[in-house]
Amino acid sequence: MSKRVDPGLLNELKQFGDVPIEACFNCGNCTAVCPLSTDETPFPRNNIRRIQVGLKEDILHSPDPWLCYYCGDCSATCPREAEPAEAQMTLRRWLTAQYDWTGLGRLFYTSPAWEVISVLITAVLVVLAFIVFHGPMVTGQVELNTFAPVDMIHLLDWVMAGLLSFFLLTNVARMHHFIIRKGTDAQVPLVLYITEAWQLAYNFVTQERFSKCDEKRPWINHLILVSGYVTMLVLILFLLPWFQTDNIYPFWHPQRWVGYYATIALIYGAGAALWGRFKKIRQMHRFSHLSDWLFPILLLIGAVTGILVHLFRYLGLPLATYTIYVIHLSMMVPMLVIEVPFGKWAHLAYRPLAIYFQRVKELAVEQQARKERLASSGA
Amino acid sequence: MSEIEQNQTPPSEGQEEPRIAVYTCYCGGNISEVVDCEKVAEAVSKLPNVVISRTDMSMCSDAGQALIEQDIKEHGVNRVIVGACAPSLHETTFRGAVTRAGLNPYLYHHVGIREQDSWVHHNDPEGASEKAIRLLSAGIAKSRMLEPLESIKLDAEKHALIIGGGVAGLRAALDIARRGIKASLIEKTPFIGGRMAQLETTFPVDEPAREALGGLIDRVVEHPNITIYTQAELVGLHGYVGDFHATIRQDQRGVSEDIADAAMAACEIEVPDEFNYGLTTRKVIYRAYDGCYPSTPAVDWANCPDGRLELTLDGKPVVLENRPETIDLTVGAIVVATGFDLYEPREGEYGYGILPEVITLPQFIRLLALNGDAPLEWNGRRVKNIAAIHCVGSREVDGIHEPHEDGSLNEYCSRICCSALLHTLNVVKDRYPDINVYDAYEDIRTYGRGHEDLYIKASHQAVRFLRFHNEERPTVNRENGDQPLLTLNDYLTWGEEIEVPVDLVVLAVGVKPRAIDDIISMLKISKGSDSFLAEVHPKLRPVETAVPGIVLAGTAQGPMNIQESSAAASAAAAKVSVLLGTGEVELEPFVAVVNHDLCDGTGACVEVCCYEDAIALETVTVNGAEVQRAVVTPANCVGCGVCVSACPNLAIDVQGWTLAQYEAMIDAIVGELPTLEAAR
After folding, report:
1. Mutate which of B386, B432, B436 to disrupt the A interface (most A C-beta within 10 Å)?
2. Are residues A69 and A114 in the same domain?
3. pLDDT of chain A, 379 residues: tens digit per residue
4. How far is CA B572 from the centre of its chain?
5. By CB atoms within 10 Å of each CB, which of A280, B191, B410, B488 scores lowest?
6. For residue B435, which residues of chain A lie inside 8 Å, CB to CB?
7. Residue ranges of domains in chain B, CATH in brackets
């Protein structure tokens, strides 16, 4: 079956990351040096080639860009300086926009103005919501839960989580459709999804694949960042009444230590990412798209403002506490609303899912082949 | 030994005793790795008259040649033999060494023991060594009988004829003229400049083609030694180097400058314009392009009914008629710069001739030139996607490609198309960055200096390269009236069959030998197996033909780009200048000589001779009686020896290769010789 190319693909991708993909002359050094590339799933040359030629569907149906963790060995050894690693990064942005059915992802990735203005508008809306709906501002002492009643905030958290999950899950469904439905002719039995489900959780938690890059430091930094982020997510979604309290716990109390850990991990992780990008320390830091800056910046601001809320409350500064709390939410909400289903946050879902889908697909193909062998030998 | 001595022909009276030096060359191992050179040298050293027998790693080196000179001077050597490569490579080298030492150059004899021995018998070292001894023994037998010869000297007309007014012909004419030799340039079409005039820019430096060509044309036109004949063809030739008699037929230009523009306006007959490869039409009174030379328009007689053109000028009927003139020129040398033809794809080859979107690269170059900076449209549609295909009509393979009408295949690489195509695609991307360009190739051969940059630039300008295998060539088809699709298995995409929707397909057509059989037969030059004109030796005599005084310039000889054509033309001009510079030409003395004591005028030799005016019966006076005797014109004789075999009286011999010498060589080859065993 011949495949129709889309000659416009290269230019389309350039909107997601201006990398000199056209310089590639298909030597394959990148695939040869990649520590993550395997005989079964060789990359990144294959996707570079698909971009060059315009095999849009093949890229859309490929999980490969998510299997790359940007150690950058390929870019470092590329004889044509075609930046294959950044091409994978660009593809991840493009795929995020492709999975997203609303079109917002494409808009945010291709237009910095749209992305920044959307973040700002969301932030302003949060501030406005507080101006209009906030509770009584007790000034004699810090009463955050009177200013912003925790039950109300918790409820709104869940409403937002529900809404964002809806968008994210529908995008995940499209990802599944592209990678499994379109990406293989093999029938995938339901049981495989169940027996392999542990892959999803395991890879989400450990990011084990990242650790297979030669340099371990980026993986460890990333692991710390994710641990802080997930801790904070659990605190906010499930334990908010315990976490956002006007009680002052003693120093040894786990509420304080869990919070401190998450905060330090977030500041360290996001800070390391930003510092790396600022100093262009590693291959992965050499090119920075706006979305690469925005996500860690919002995370960092969120962590810093979060700990300031804690600090001001302990210092007994009511107005400062309420103000910084509003600022905190005015950064965290847009970070989640813009980035979770439509932006860089989505990689938290797509990366482990890609490994999971790839595994399920491989097993299904194997099973099908075995069945066919049996059938033909039986005949 | 005694037998050999008996077989030996004694030196003729008055001739000094032969003192032969034999050198067996290792050829850097080419010979010595098969042939045991030391034993060969030892074996031949025992043959009579051999006073020196040596071996050397490389006789053609300066040291090797100096050795010969030294032996001649110090040991009284008067015959020299080198057993080495083929005589076509280094016979002249060693003749030079012998001459420098004061010996007649024709007392040197060359024996080929590389091409004729070590290379072909590499599996049989012992046999090869014995063969070397036999070949050298034969050479020694001939050497004993060699006599000093003098080269033939002929008066030469200091005037060259250049056939073809393209860049090679112009370059050759100018170079010859600047050395003080008259040059007559004949061009078949009404305008000089050839195919270079059709280019916008040239690679690899992106120079405007017309500027460079215009500069050359100006210098040619201005040079007092050059005469240009347009609409002129060679129709007859006889004579020999230094004294060729050429007959030129020249058409009338048809219109004079004063009525030219009015006549062009009045002319109503339009024909496809070959200058634009049929993309446009022109009148039959025309200029090839603005600024062409000569600037006076010409009548295209071939496209006028009955060779006449009827016009109404100022209300009066005017009839233009062609009255061709004949011009006779006497020239000392001829430069063949007849150029090339382009491969015309078959109907249906990649959709050519069926889909209007499929055009050739030369057409595309003209299309871009005509289009200028306007948006590129073709066939009524804005061009967004272009596909180009390499090697169309080049590197054809038996069993994959259909042979041409004459059964031939263009098996050669046309050499210019890869760089020309990439250069043109770069022009497209410079001018229209939004056009997507796909380039389907089998191999990319940007071999020249600076040409690889064309590939790199194209690559950086996002020309998408697709690679096919020869046996799975791309197809171009149209589905349901839509855009045409280029379909191929792309080996850079792991053999995936991909389809590219395109608005224009550009076929990089190859270079074909031009159909000039009439000129070839007039000049008696020969074609190679690829039907391009053949040189004498591809490496050492790359612009000379087998006919003395006739040299090749440019693409008549094979695919070349402008740079290579110019280089070849300058080389051809240098050869002509050396040949005619002294007003005298020198030929090798290996021609037939008639012994009039034995000749009785049978005329058998004249009947069998294949060469015009080489041998004829003439009336001479012998012992007071007028008789017919064969007389050789040395300039026309090639020394083939056919006459020798035909003569019933054995009255003819070829100097330097006499029957007696042949007999001695054959006796030596078949006779009993000192074998390796004997040598041990």
Report:
1. B436
2. no
3. 789 999 999 999 999 998 999 999 999 999 999 999 998 889 999 999 999 999 999 999 999 999 999 999 999 999 999 999 999 999 999 999 999 999 999 999 999 999 999 999 999 999 999 999 999 999 989 999 999 999 999 999 999 999 999 999 999 999 999 999 998 888 899 999 999 999 999 999 999 999 999 999 999 999 999 999 999 999 999 999 989 888 888 989 999 999 999 999 999 999 999 999 999 999 999 999 999 999 999 999 999 999 999 999 999 999 999 999 999 999 999 999 999 999 999 999 999 999 999 999 999 999 999 999 998 886 5
4. 10
5. A280
6. none
7. 2-149+669-679 (3.40.50), 159-250+326-339+514-582 (3.50.50.60), 257-323 (no CATH), 345-512 (3.50.50.60), 592-655 (3.30.70.20)
CB-based contact B412:B558 (threshold 8 Å):
yes
**Residues A259 and A282 reside in one and the same domain:** yes
Instruction: Report the CATH number at residue A53.
Output: 1.10.1060.10
Question: How far apart are the C-alpha atoms of A354 and A60, rounded to whole Å?
Answer: 12
Shared domain for A112 and A60, answered yes or no, is: no
CB B446 within 8 A of CB B438: no
Gap between the terminal Cα atoms of chain A? 28
Residue of A nearest to B486 (CA): A4
Helical residues (DSSP H) of B538-658, grouped into ranges: 562-580, 604-608, 642-646
Cα A348 → chain centroid: 4
pTM above 0.80, yes or no: yes
User: Is A7 an 8 Å CB contact of chain B?
Assistant: yes
A374 occurs within a structural domain: no
Selecting from A5, A22, A26 the residue whose C-beta is nearest the C-beta of B460 gives A22
Across the interface, whether the CB atoms of A7 and B487 are under 8 A apart is answered no
Cα A243 from Cα A306, distance rounded (Å): 11
Taking the C-alpha atoms of residue A79 and residue A97, their distance in angstroms, rounded to an integer, is 30
In a domain, A1, yes or no: no
The reply to whether A35 and A146 lie within a common domain is no
Q: In B, what residues contact A, Cβ < 8 A?
A: 384-385, 436, 438, 459-466, 485, 487, 490, 492-494, 496-501
Q: Name the residue in chain A with its Cα closest to that of B462.
A: A22
Do the beta carbons of residue A356 and residue A203 sit within 8 Å? Answer: yes
Domain annotation covers residue A81: yes
Give me the count of residues in chain B. Answer: 680
Domain membership of residue A379 (yes or no) is no
Q: How many residues are present in chain A? A: 379
Residues A25 and A78 in one domain: yes
Chain A residues closer than 8 Å to B476 by CB: none
Query: B385: which chain A residues are within 8 Å (Cβ-Cβ)?
Result: 7
Q: Are residues A203 and A226 in the same domain?
A: yes
- Kindly state whether residues A279 and A331 are assigned to the same domain: yes
Rounded CA separation B441/B661 (Å): 57
Q: What is the sign, positive or negative, of the torsion defined by CA atoms of B28, B30, B36, B42?
A: negative
Taking an 8 Å cut-off on Cβ atoms, the answer to whether B459 and A22 are in contact is yes
| Residues B505, B345 contacting (CB under 8 angstroms) | no
Q: Considering A40, A74, A99, which residue would you say is the last residue of a domain?
A: A99
Residue A241 and residue A293 in one domain? yes
Q: Cβ of B6: how many Cβ atoms within 10 Å? A: 7
Smallest CA-to-CA distance from B448 within B539, B342, B569, B561 is with B561
Print the domain residue range for A89: 9-99
Q: Please say which residue of A70, A99, A128 terminates a domain.
A: A99
Cα(B654)–Cα(B637) distance, integer angstroms? 10
CA R_g for chain A: 23
Residues of chain B contacting A25 with CB distance shorter than 8 Å: 459, 465
Name, in order, each residue with C-beta under 8 angstroms of B352's C-beta and a sequence gap of 6 or more: B345, B346, B358, B359, B360, B507
* A49/B501 touch (CB, cutoff 8 Å), yes or no: no
The token duo for A207 is 């990011």
